[in-house]
Amino acid sequence: MASNKKSRIKDAAFRRMLSVVLITLLGVVLILFLLQKNRVSHIVTRYSNEIDQNIELTNTHSQFRRKLIPKQNELSILLEKKNQWPPRNLDLFPKLAKDHITIVLYVHNRPQYLRVVVDSLSQVVGIGETLLIVSHDGYFEEMNKIVEGIRFCQVKQIFAPYSPHIFNNSFPGVSPTDCKDRDDSVKKRCKGNPDQYGNHRSPKIVSLKHHWWWMMNIVWDGLEETRQHSGHILFIEEDHFIFPNAYRNLQLLTALKPKKCPNCYAANLAPSDVKSRGEGWEKLIAEKMGNVGYAFNRTVWRKIHRKAREFCFFDEYNWDITMWATVYPSFGGPVYTLRGPRTSAVHFGKCGLHQGQGESVSCIDKGVVNIQVEEIDKTGNINSNWGVQVFEHQTGYQAGFRGWGGWGDTRDHELCLEFAGMYHFRHKISS
Ligand SMILES: *[C@@H]1O[C@H](CO)[C@@H](O)[C@H](O)[C@H]1NC(C)=O
Ligand SMILES: *[C@@H]1O[C@H](CO)[C@@H](O)[C@H](O)[C@H]1NC(C)=O
Fold this sequence. Notes:
- Helix content is about 30%, strand content about 15%.
- The protein has 11 helices and 17 strands.
């Protein structure tokens, strides 16, 4: 009797197991079938089951065929490995502060500028609480040395493995069979698609937009150190001077944002008008997204990532103008950012390059910038009781702008889309 019951139980358990196995198998077969059958390229993010619609092929782009990403050279492979290395200075700063704002500094090859930026960062109050990621477009010893010398916070270097600067005779660099300038590809039998103005790609020019997009994708979705980061990430460039109060101000702005400006997607360290140092009012300002010291969170990144096609197909080589003209307008409403009335970051250029703009222009000459840090810029200078002044209908690039070109080659479009899919499972298009 007892053994009979036992075997019945065993039997039932066996049947349950069998049905679980069968259902799982069926599920797998069904998924495989769907993957095979479905021509639409689906991606499932690795970290959630959310299906991004951005990479789904829409009819307008169904002629597009995904090709393999460029063949990597030795340097490219090495750099990709380096990207896995842990941050430096873990001995000095073993822990990041809870709720820290990660800082990403993206650079190319201007060591004189980078030195100034790094010096300014070393004075930032609270910098030791966070992780600084330096994203390099190209591989340059002098740039590396500066970053390796940083001792004021955790620092991690990453290198764009498909930067045109590290491919000297093949795509994404220049390859011998590429068309140049205004070549006729049929007559010259060269490779490439001209942009809307008839010009062929220039690797030096396309590298910036590629780098920015690659960096966004790896920082939010790829890197061990940041892919789970739930807060904001601040993005700055190699020609942005950062004031000592930048980090504390930014912490306050991001904390105030949900309440003070529910329509704001981001917080900015500087006005969107890069020549302005702010109004000096006792008010916060909500205005259009700026490109100097902008910080946003993962929710906003997901929104941007969903617009990969808009970003990658728009014939404009500047990432920021691409965002203003296509990506932000596609969000379906004004895209504001919140900032303080005094700037906490300044964009600088080479002295004497912009004549006639007066002395207020920030510039660098022989490695020295003419930017004075006043007492009021040394500590947090935002008051959480201030109201918000909204700047509506600002001028500048917006929906309808057709782009400056420089981004007409389908190989660049494809590489860009590949970056969007790097950290998302995707099956190949089956026809
Ligand atoms: C390209 O770079 C590789 C290694 O980086 C080097 O060996 C080769 O000589 C370079 N070729 C040209 C054409 O500069
Ligand atoms: C991220 O920021 C957006 C825009 O400010 C906000 O709507 C959203 O709730 C934030 N997400 C999280 C997870 O805090």
